[in-house]
Task: structure prediction
Amino acid sequence: MDKNLEGASIEWCVSDLDGTLLNSKGEVSPQTQEAIAQLHEAGIGFTLATGRNDLHIREMIQNLKITLPVISCNGALIRDMATENVIQADYIEDGAVDRIIEVGSHYGWDFIGYTKDAIWYLPDSPGMKYYREYNRKSDPAFHIPLNGTSMAEWPREEFLKFFIWDVPAGQAKELEQEERITRVQSMAGSLDIMAAGVSKGRGLKILADHLGMDLARTAVFGDNHNDLEMLSAAGYSFAMANGEEETKRTAKYSTGTNDEHGVAQIILSKIL
Result:
């Protein structure tokens, strides 16, 4: 720990998923499950802020007894999973979608497109095999439709986020001047694209306002570049020891790695 949290009065906790709450096997450890259960018992809220679509983690949300709305698609979607009520949805403008697809098609990018109710991908996508295997750990039943079709059939007006595998830095620069989008990295070599202004930090502020929560009494956990705005927005922010260096510089505090149950360490020793 970098600083002492004595005297902190935290209302709720918000955690990133991959590389943070999940260990390197893509699982929530028993220790972390127990820590979250103790948060619930203490009347302290807990929810997730993830780059994934929330439908992919429905079973995990149920198992962890999360009742607060979930921030997904890097902040582009906030949804109450119990009622299916969409609190916020920020769609990428049609023209920006066309530009993204134009550049990606030129370079042969391996796309995945997220709408609020489905995942869209190219029929010959090499990344989808890994995508299916990885997400099956948290969503064995696959609660979200997967549509493998040509881009001509993709619903241009419904996209919340694009995820692109293995994008060389020089190619990604093609979109630097596109003011209608936000670009961020959620894993090494990848590119996440959302509507302009979208971030987990903005999503956190919207959800806090919706719930009447105080950001000064909010604890957040993250490990990667798509967590930076969220770490900056909260009163108590924790970077994982396995996280990116910029994440560690941005967060106010630090904790152990995701394989050392870093989120649970803070919950049990500093929050409860």
Summary: Residues 94-107 form the longest helix (14 residues). The domain at 94-195 is CATH 3.30.1240.10 (Hypothetical Protein, Haloacid Dehalogenase-like Hydrolase; Chain: A; domain 2).
